[in-house]
Amino acid sequence: MLLASVVVPVVSAQGATPACTVAYSVTGQWAGGFQGSVKITNDQTALNSWRLTFDFADGQKVTQGWNAAWSQSGTTVTAASESWNASLGAGASVTAGFLADRSGGNTAPTAFTLNGTTCNVDPGPPPTSPPPTTDTAPALHVSGTRIEDTSGATRRLLGVNRSGGEFMCVQGHGIWDGPVDDAAIQAIADWKADAVRIPLNEECWLGLSNIKPEYGGTNYINAVKNLVARVETHGMTPILDLHWTYGQYTGNSAGCSDVHATCQKPMPDAQYSPSFWASVASTFKDDPAPVYDLFNEPYPDRATSSTTDAWTCWRDGGTCAGIPYEVAGMQDLVDSIRNTGSTNVLMVGGLAYANDLSQWTVYKPQDPVGNLAAAYHGYNFNTCASESCWNSTLAPVAAQVPLVAGEIGENTCAHGFIDQAMKWFDDRNLSYLGWAWNTWDCSSGPSLISAYDGTPTAYGTGLRDHLRALNP
């Protein structure tokens, strides 16, 4: 599916210096809807609050948004400042985004007012479009405890994690860590992988103001669409994973103290995560091949001593013990995706960084289309990293829903642990993906490869040889 980006033409100011400049763009578009963004620059004296208005010409209707209080009356759309971004100094800018429905055309607005004063309009950067996909990866659905294609054949998700999209953009270095061109994806396929998990960053996808424009919004979405297209062209299933998110957490096991999406947070945030998934699901609405991994590694159990509170937070979100920001629960994220009409398979990881699935079946979210899989992460240093634990906690889950080990790995520069894990999952016809297809150190990464042509590390050799043995 091609991504259309729309920019409005320059409108020349008449008379006095304009009060503001507005850059409007469509960062994602699909049948029946689109994602939009407005960047407001204040060209006058400092403001204590702001209120932007504009009109749609084709019956477009805003359904949700972020970084502003969005509302619409008839054709008129209003974006008002929130308490935390109300101050807008002279020369300062703020970016806000939204999702909207459309039934026909999608003409961009041509006139904007800020606090009642007319603005100039910035044309913004020219749009880019990703190449079309040949859609050779199969459409997937859940049937009992199996993930199947449309023919009814079981599809085990066996492959690797391609890290980079979660951290490069927010650190200001780029979008991917290393090449993701056709040769790089072919190297993954040469290991006989049939799935690639792609970690993402919600601030970069939504194009929030702390992200460099060249690495966020339209540019980031197009880069993800390009990678998904290449993965699918090689017959592999792309798994899109919400990895790093917004929200400040400084409690037990905090990965960082930053409010921005610069590390693993204990839970997704209500402010942006539902909008992220609504946008992703809408962007790929016509593609039944991708699988969505709702949140990388939840750990609300580290923020509270109550197991019940932790699992309740995991499912329901809201105000959670020990987590200062408003949480989006797994049910919120399922609902956000399903409300777009998407029926793609969803993966949901448990507590303790997705290592604890002991009460997953008790608290599992409800999926109206029944395409839900449980996600487990297992490393040699985790609590649940033995056959006895897998038998007692994972096997009961796998008896009810598909089970995918979204990450397996070890910090030994060897493959004894993943050999044991792969055998356990093989014996039960389950899925697993190794972490990570990056050229870091084989112990601290841990890295599967030493070069992007697929040259394995000692650790990666275990996964490569095993996948090739399964599919000679």
From TrEMBL:
Coiled-coil annotation reads none
Q: Which residues cross the membrane?
A: none
Query: What's the top EC group for this one?
Result: hydrolase
Molecular function, one GO term: polysaccharide binding
Q: Name one GO biological process term.
A: cellulose catabolic process
* Record's keyword terms, sorted: Carbohydrate metabolism, Cellulose degradation, Glycosidase, Hydrolase, Polysaccharide degradation, Signal
Quote the biased-composition stretches of kind Pro residues, using this chain's numbering. 123-133
Which Gene3D superfamilies does the UniProt entry name for this protein? 2.60.40.290, Glycosidases
Q: Which InterPro entries match?
A: CBD2, CBM2/CBM3_carb-bd_dom_sf, CBM2_carb-bd_dom_sf, GH, Glyco_hydro_5
Under catalytic activity, the entry for this protein gives: Endohydrolysis of (1->4)-beta-D-glucosidic linkages in cellulose, lichenin and cereal beta-D-glucans
Q: Where is this region: Disordered?
A: 118-139
Q: Which residues form the CBM2 domain?
A: 13-122
**KW DNA damage (keyword) present:** no
Q: What is its EC number?
A: 3.2.1.4
- UniProt KW Protein biosynthesis keyword: no
Q: Which SMART domains match?
A: CBD_II
Any Pfam family hit = CBM_2
Q: Which PANTHER family has this protein been placed in? A: ENDO-BETA-1,4-GLUCANASE A, GLYCOSIDE HYDROLASE FAMILY 5 DOMAIN-CONTAINING PROTEIN
**Family in the record:** Belongs to the glycosyl hydrolase 5 (cellulase A) family.
Q: What is this protein called?
A: Endoglucanase
